[in-house]
Amino acid sequence: MLSKTKKRADDFLTQLQESTGIDIHYIARSGGWTFFSFAINSLLSLIVVIIF
After folding, report:
1. Per-residue confidence (pLDDT) for residue 23, from 0 to 100
2. Residue 47 and residue 15 in contact, taking contact as beta carbons nearer than 8 Å
Protein backbone atom coordinates (compact mmCIF):
# COMPACT_ATOMS: atom_id res chain seq x y z
CA MET A 1 0.00 0.00 0.00
CA LEU A 2 2.66 2.48 1.08
CA SER A 3 4.99 1.58 -1.79
CA LYS A 4 2.13 2.06 -4.26
CA THR A 5 1.47 5.48 -2.77
CA LYS A 6 5.16 6.33 -2.98
CA LYS A 7 5.23 5.27 -6.64
CA ARG A 8 2.26 7.51 -7.35
CA ALA A 9 4.00 10.35 -5.55
CA ASP A 10 7.15 9.74 -7.60
CA ASP A 11 5.13 9.70 -10.83
CA PHE A 12 3.43 12.91 -9.74
CA LEU A 13 6.80 14.51 -8.96
CA THR A 14 8.10 13.42 -12.36
CA GLN A 15 5.11 15.01 -14.11
CA LEU A 16 5.53 18.13 -12.01
CA GLN A 17 9.23 18.23 -12.83
CA GLU A 18 8.54 17.92 -16.56
CA SER A 19 5.93 20.69 -16.47
CA THR A 20 7.95 23.08 -14.29
CA GLY A 21 11.50 22.18 -15.31
CA ILE A 22 12.52 21.86 -11.65
CA ASP A 23 14.17 18.63 -10.51
CA ILE A 24 12.26 18.17 -7.26
CA HIS A 25 13.72 14.70 -6.65
CA TYR A 26 17.22 16.17 -6.75
CA ILE A 27 16.28 18.97 -4.35
CA ALA A 28 14.69 16.50 -1.92
CA ARG A 29 17.69 14.15 -2.12
CA SER A 30 20.29 16.88 -1.70
CA GLY A 31 18.35 18.15 1.32
CA GLY A 32 18.40 14.67 2.82
CA TRP A 33 15.62 13.54 5.08
CA THR A 34 15.33 16.84 6.88
CA PHE A 35 11.98 17.79 8.35
CA PHE A 36 11.41 20.14 5.42
CA SER A 37 11.77 17.51 2.70
CA PHE A 38 9.90 14.97 4.84
CA ALA A 39 7.02 17.42 5.23
CA ILE A 40 6.94 18.08 1.47
CA ASN A 41 6.98 14.34 0.70
CA SER A 42 4.18 13.72 3.20
CA LEU A 43 2.15 16.59 1.78
CA LEU A 44 2.64 15.40 -1.81
CA SER A 45 1.70 11.84 -0.82
CA LEU A 46 -1.46 13.18 0.81
CA ILE A 47 -2.30 15.24 -2.30
CA VAL A 48 -1.71 12.23 -4.56
CA VAL A 49 -3.94 10.04 -2.37
CA ILE A 50 -6.71 12.65 -2.55
CA ILE A 51 -6.35 13.08 -6.34
CA PHE A 52 -6.32 9.35 -7.11
Report:
1. 62
2. no
